[in-house]
Write a structure and sequence with these properties.
heterodimer; A: about 260 residues; mainly alpha; 9 helices; B: about 240 residues; 2 domains; about 75% helix
Chain lengths: ~260, ~240
C-alpha cells in the first residue's frame, strides 16, 4: 500500500509540476467564468445556461486533464526513460499501475473540485441554488466517467506504442462511449443476429459513458437521480475500473522494456 | 498455473457482474427516458445536435439554439417578415432538448399573443406536452392560446392573470397582459398594473417597458385621477 501511495504522490506532484496542466486549469477556470457572460445573452434562462455551460466545461476539462496527464506521463516514460528509474526500485508492476491510476484521478479530482467551486459561486451570483443536489450529482458523475476513462487511458498507454495513437483511441472511445446506448437501442428491433452480437460486444467492452451523463437531465421532468440508479452506475464504475486495471497490470507485467 | 486460472475466473466473474450493473442501469435509462432520448435514423436532423449527443452535451446545443432564437426575435428587421422562421428556431431548441420547458411557454406566448400564429403556437405546446406530460403548466398555456384564438378575451385574460402567480412565468406574459389591459380596461387600471410591474418584474427589460408604458398613459392625459399614480411614481 505504501508503494502505491508513493507512486500516487509522485504522479500527482509530477502533474502539477507540468506547466501545460496548470495552464489548462487556468483556462478551465476562465471558461467556467465565461458562462457568466454567455448567460447574459440568454434572457430569463440564465441559471439553466450557467449550469449547462458550467457542467459541460467540467466534463470537457476533466477529460482534457486526463488526456494531458496520460500524454505527459507516457512521454516521460518512453522518451525520457523515467520508467526505468522507477522499475529498478522495489516496487511491483501492478503497484505502479494502481498508483499511477490513483495519481491521475487525484489530479482530475482537484481540477473538477476547483471548477465546481467556481461554478457554484457563479450560480449563487446569478440567484440560483449552488447546493442543488442534481448539480452536485451531475458534476460527481462527470468525474466518475473520467475516472472510468482513466483506466482505459492507462490500458491504451500500455498497449499502444505512440502518444498520438493513444490520444486518438481515447477520443474515439469517448465518443463511442456516449453512443453505445443508442446503438443498442437502434438494433433492439433488428432481426440481424450478427449485427446484434457485434453491437453487444461493443456495448459491453466500451465504457457506457451515457450512463454518467446526468448533466443533460438536470432540467428533465423524468430525471435519473434515484439512489438506486446512482448506485448501479457507481457499482459499474468500480467493477469496470477493477477489470481494466487488472488487464493493464497483466499486460504491463509481461512487457519488455529493454 | 492455478494462480492464473484463479485470476482468469475472478476476472470473468467481475466482468459478468459489471455487465449486469451496466444492463440494469441502462434498463433504468430506457424505461425512464422518453422515446426522443434515443437516436433513430430520423431524429436529430441538425448535425450540431448529433454532435451534442455523441459527446454528451445535447442541452448545451439547445441553449445555443435558444440564444440564436432570442437574437432572431430581437432583430427589428425581421418584423416586416413577421418573424417567419421563428417556429423553426423553437423547433430546433426543443429537438435538441425537449425538456426545455421555458422554450415552450415563452415561444408559444410570442407566437399566439404577439404574432397571432395560433396553429404554430398550439403545435409547439402540444410538442411540449408530448415530451413533458407531467409539466402541467403547458396545459394551462394551451387553454389561454385556444381562448385567444376564439376571441374569448375575458377567459384568456383570466388564465394569463393566473400564469403570473407562478414564479417561473416568462416575463413576456407581464408585457402581454399590460398591453391587453390598455385596450380592454380603463387607463387607471392599466396604469396601476404597469406601475406594479415596473416595481416587481424580475426582468429588467420588462421593468423598463412597464415604466415607458406608464409614462405614455400619464402623458396621454386619459387618467381620471392621476394624483395617486403620480404620487406612487415619485415614491418609487
Amino acid at each position: 500500500m505504501r508503494n502505491i501511495l508513493a507512486v500516487t504522490d509522485y504522479i500527482f506532484k509530477q502533474s502539477f509540476r507540468n506547466r501545460i496542466l496548470n495552464v489548462l486549469i487556468l483556462f478551465a477556470v476562465f471558461t467556467i467564468g465565461f458562462s457568466l457572460v454567455i448567460s447574459e445573452l440568454a434572457q430569463e434562462a440564465e441559471i439553466k445556461i450557467v449550469m449547462d455551460f458550467g457542467l459541460f466545461a467540467i466534463g470537457l476539462f476533466a477529460f482534457l486533464t486526463l488526456v494531458l496527464s496520460v500524454t505527459v506521463q507516457m512521454f516521460e516514460e518512453t522518451e525520457l526513460k523515467t520508467l526505468m528509474l522507477i522499475m529498478v526500485k522495489p516496487i511491483k508492476r501492478h503497484e505502479y499501475i494502481i498508483g499511477k491510476y490513483m495519481g491521475i484521478i487525484a489530479t482530475v479530482f482537484m481540477n473538477v473540485l476547483i471548477m465546481l467551486c467556481i461554478l457554484m459561486v457563479i450560480i449563487s451570483l446569478r440567484g440560483g441554488d449552488p447546493w442543488d443536489i442534481k448539480l452536485l450529482a451531475a458534476a460527481g458523475y462527470s468525474f466518475a466517467s473520467v475516472a472510468l476513462l482513466s483506466s482505459v487511458a492507462l490500458l491504451l498507454s500500455v498497449v499502444t506504442t505512440s502518444v498520438p495513437g493513444c490520444i486518438i483511441f481515447l477520443v474515439f472511445i469517448y465518443a463511442l462511449g456516449h453512443l453505445t446506448i443508442h446503438l443498442k437501442n437502434l438494433t433492439a428491433d433488428s432481426n440481424n443476429a450478427v449485427l446484434k452480437f457485434c453491437v453487444d460486444v461493443v456495448y459491453y467492452l466500451v465504457p457506457n459513458l451515457e450512463l454518467f451523463n446526468l448533466k443533460d437531465k438536470i432540467f428533465s421532468t423524468e430525471a435519473l437521480f434515484a439512489p438506486g440508479y446512482l448506485g448501479f452506475v457507481a457499482g459499474y464504475t468500480l467493477l469496470y475500473v477493477a477489470v481494466i486495471l487488472t488487464v493493464t497490470s497483466v499486460i504491463f507485467k509481461n512487457k519488455e522494456f529493454y | 498455473m492455478i494462480k492464473k486460472i484463479f485470476l482468469l475466473t475472478a476476472l470473468i466473474t467481475v466482468f459478468c457482474c459489471m455487465c449486469w450493473f451496466n444492463g440494469r442501469a441502462t434498463q433504468m435509462v430506457t424505461s425512464s427516458q422518453p422515446r426522443w432520448y434515443f437516436l433513430t435514423p430520423h431524429s436529430y436532423g441538425n448535425f450540431r445536435h448529433i454532435l451534442g449527443v455523441s459527446f454528451g452535451f445535447r442541452t448545451l446545443m439547445a441553449d445555443f439554439d435558444y440564444i440564436s432564437f432570442l437574437q432572431y426575435y430581437g432583430d427589428k428587421t425581421q418584423k416586416a417578415d413577421r418573424y417567419r422562421k421563428l417556429y423553426g428556431y423553437l423547433d430546433d431548441i426543443t429537438n435538441a432538448d425537449p425538456n426545455f420547458t421555458f422554450a415552450y411557454t415563452y415561444g408559444s406566448a410570442i407566437l399566439a399573443f404577439n404574432l397571432e400564429r395560433y396553429d404554430e403556437a398550439i403545435k409547439l405546446i402540444n410538442k411540449g406536452i408530448e415530451y413533458n406530460p407531467s409539466f402541467w403548466k403547458l396545459h394551462f398555456y394551451l387553454g389561454a392560446i385556444i381562448f385567444k384564438q376564439k376571441g374569448e378575451t375575458e377567459k384568456y385574460i383570466g388564465l394569463l392573470e393566473d400564469a403570473l402567480k407562478f414564479a417561473d412565468h416568462p416575463a413576456i406574459i407581464e408585457r402581454l397582459l399590460g398591453n391587453i389591459y390598455e385596450t380592454t380596461r380603463a387607463p387607471d387600471f392599466a396604469a396601476l398594473y404597469w406601475l406594479k410591474t415596473a416595481g416587481n418584474s424580475k426582468d429588467g427589460d420588462t421593468r423598463g417597458y412597464a415604466y415607458k408604458r406608464l409614462k405614455a398613459i400619464v402623458e396621454s392625459g386619459k387618467l381620471s385621477d392621476p394624483e395617486p399614480i403620480l404620487r406612487q411614481i415619485n415614491g418609487q
